[in-house]
Design a protein that fits this description.
- The protein is an alpha+beta fold.
- Helices cover 29% and strands 19% of the residues.
- Strand 4 and strand 5 form a beta hairpin.
């Protein structure tokens, strides 16, 4: 059984402890940023920020409501980025069987910029970024080094409010359903974002578009590249099954 995050946005206070813990654990450099009329900083995910607490505000009636969304890779159960990458360079994107973590390897540095865009566009959550210095694709890796050592991811360790949770997938799914039932007592539009497709499950207290345009999966129209990536991935799975059989 894979590992899974449950991120309960109804408990998030936007302290950004998770965002900073991620940067510190991976010793990622600071970004030069500018005030853009929002407390969100930096403006978007980038090679130096694998996790970003997104800020969104909405006028609901006569009251301004804040929505916080700790954005990161969803570690999809069947990662489309891996299927797309395998049509270019096999092994550039791998999935750890024990944890479910989706990882971009050093082979991703061999991608051209067009190759990178092709793989990035396969992600329904708009997560992958490219390090221009190394050429490598980067994102959250589920703190796999910590998890393999019996620790929880850095973002989970520092969260003071119970927003970030991590554990075995069946346990997190049960916790997600329990919390959802409780939240719906006061937030009838509460929902779980794609819980059966990803290993990073968000509990949203309101409509997903109020949090972030990619808070839930957006399915791109099937084009020839996507179709080829799907077929190539399926063929690869069959070959693996034959080898193991």
């Amino acid at each position: 059984m894979s590992k899974t995050f449950l991120i309960d946005t109804t408990r998030c206070t936007a302290c950004r402890g998770c965002q900073l813990a991620c940067k510190e654990w991976y010793e990622l450099p600071a970004n030069k940023t500018f005030q853009m009329g929002t407390h969100q900083n930096p403006p978007d995910l980038n090679p130096n920020n694998y996790k970003l607490v997104r800020f969104s505000e909405h006028l609901i009636g006569d009251k301004v409501e804040w929505y916080f969304f700790p954005d990161q890779c969803r570690h999809c159960l069947n990662p489309p980025c891996q299927g797309a990458a395998d049509t270019l360079i096999e092994g550039a994107v791998i999935q750890d069987e024990a944890t479910g973590a989706v990882i971009f390897t050093e082979k991703s540095a061999k991608f051209s910029k067009d190759d990178f865009e092709y793989v990035r566009e396969s992600c329904p959550y708009n997560i992958p970024r490219r390090d221009e210095k190394s050429g490598r694709m980067v994102k959250c890796v589920m703190c796999i080094d910590r998890v393999q050592a019996g620790m929880v991811p850095a973002c989970v360790k520092v969260c003071p409010t119970g927003t970030m949770n991590f554990g075995e997938r069946d346990e997190m799914l049960a916790l997600a359903e329990k919390r959802l039932a409780k939240v719906r007592e006061t937030h009838p539009d509460a929902m779980l974002a794609d819980p059966y497709d990803v290993n990073v499950i968000y509990l949203l207290g309101d409509k997903p578009e109020r949090y972030h345009e990619h808070s839930v999966a957006s399915v791109a129209p099937m084009n020839r590249k996507n179709l080829f990536a799907t077929v190539r991935s399926a063929v690869g799975n069959v070959k693996d099954a034959v080898r193991k059989g």
